[in-house]
Amino acid sequence: MSAKAPLGPPYARGAMAYVLAGGRGSRLMELTDRRAKPAVYFGGKTRIIDFALSNALNSGIRRIGVATQYKAHSLIRHLQRGWNFFRSERNESFDVLPASQRVSEEAWYLGTADAVYQNLDIIEDYAPRHMVILAGDHIYKMDYEQMLAQHVESGADVTVGCLEVARSEASGFGVMHIDERDRIIDFLEKPADPPAMPGKPDVSLASMGIYVFDTPFLFDLLRKDAEDPNSSHDFGKDIIPAIVKGGKAVAHHFARSCVRSATEQEPYWRDVGTVDAYFEANIDLTDFVPALDLYDKEWPIWTFAEITPPAKFIHDKDDRRGRAISSLVSGGCIVSGAGVKESLLFTGVRVNSYADVERAVILPYVEIGRHARLRNVVIDRGVAIPEKLVVGEDPELDAQRFRRTSKGVCLITQSMIDRL
């Protein structure tokens, strides 16, 4: 057994972050054909999971576990390459925990709670005083130390990270009904008539899928839940509602611990679980003053950084000028006599002469052929766009060839290109 974690603040040093990263992410369509949702690229060079992991690291947490399940190879490879700097001699640890039938030879992870239960022995070896349970598929910056401090000071059995959302939009969330002291008095899963917050009739409080527990309490709860044949072994469906009814559950408001630089006006949190939401959150980063500041040195987003040459822009004729306007262009990219506007080019993208790209999210190592015209697209990794391909100008033709969303965004994969 490891030495006991310290009792007093900062509480993060004695905590363990446990990231649930096994989701299918089916609403991202072909983007998750080969990778889990947390492994999907975001923001020019990072993956979605890097935000939860960076929040934990920046908060002072030095013990992290990541539970993986579906299509996990891309995710595990990213974690091995980008998050391998933790040192056991500094009482640090980083464990990748695939579903491996460790409890039963017939059971993979049955739910989010079971994904923790099946690894209790590993967690016990580290003896953390608190467990911070995190979803690995949201984009936000948050100081978990603030949430841990509230948990300790309130004497809660569980503290639930909560986000204020418009009541009219809250039916898609798990909604917390709280009293004036932030104690959760009811938990409603996707209610038709969401309860309003005290004093805010048009606002509801939605769960972020972030929970803080005292470790012994959580272990007892998970062992009881594992023995319940009627449980779905899920935090949102089983564990949290049970504590609300029989214990003390307290809401932690995201606005209290959201990390914001001087340029960020509002607390930023996004679920990028659909192609439209994913596209919009990426394109938002091209704004003159984006709602999410990726340039904040006080709260860096850590990731695996490939060794690449600088981005390159070549040719300077009126009809053949390499340029990028209001765009994020990563290392290894070459914009050769082409125009790029309001777009994100991930590592190693090449845009060839006379191509015109606008409002595009282009994942690593894509090559765009000459004279192509692309607008409102998401292009998967490694796709070769043929010369003179036009996307974003004929909705009916786009829908026949590619995955076109209700908002007019086209997702393009290599298999779609091969069928042309």
UniProtKB/TrEMBL annotation:
Catalytic activity entry: alpha-D-glucose 1-phosphate + ATP + H(+) = ADP-alpha-D-glucose + diphosphate
Domain named Glucose-1-phosphate adenylyltransferase/Bifunctional protein GlmU-like C-terminal hexapeptide: residues: 309-412
Family recorded in the similarity comment: Belongs to the bacterial/plant glucose-1-phosphate adenylyltransferase family.
Gene: glgC
HAMAP family the UniProt entry points to: GlgC
Keyword tags: ATP-binding, Carbohydrate metabolism, Glycogen biosynthesis, Glycogen metabolism, Nucleotide-binding, Nucleotidyltransferase, Transferase
GO MF annotation list: ATP binding; glucose-1-phosphate adenylyltransferase activity
Keyword match Cytoplasm: no
Pathway(s) of this molecule: Glycan biosynthesis; glycogen biosynthesis
Xref: CDD domains: ADP_Glucose_PP (cd02508), LbH_G1P_AT_C (cd04651)
EC number: 2.7.7.27
Function: Involved in the biosynthesis of ADP-glucose, a building block required for the elongation reactions to produce glycogen. Catalyzes the reaction between ATP and alpha-D-glucose 1-phosphate (G1P) to produce pyrophosphate and ADP-Glc.
GO biological process: glycogen biosynthetic process
One matching Pfam family: Hexapep_GlmU
Site (Could play a key role in the communication between the regulatory and the substrate sites): 69, 108
InterPro entries, per database record: ADP-Glc_PPase (IPR011831), ADP_Glu_pyroP_CS (IPR005836), GlgC_bac (IPR023049), GlmU/GlgC-like_hexapep (IPR056818), NTP_transferase_dom (IPR005835), Nucleotide-diphossugar_trans (IPR029044), Trimer_LpxA-like_sf (IPR011004)
Name of this protein: Glucose-1-phosphate adenylyltransferase
Residue span, Nucleotidyl transferase domain: 18-286
Matches recorded under PROSITE patterns: ADP_GLC_PYROPHOSPH_1, ADP_GLC_PYROPHOSPH_2, ADP_GLC_PYROPHOSPH_3
Class of the enzyme per the UniProt entry, highest EC level: transferase
Residues that coordinate or bind alpha-D-glucose 1-phosphate: 109, 174, 189-190, 207
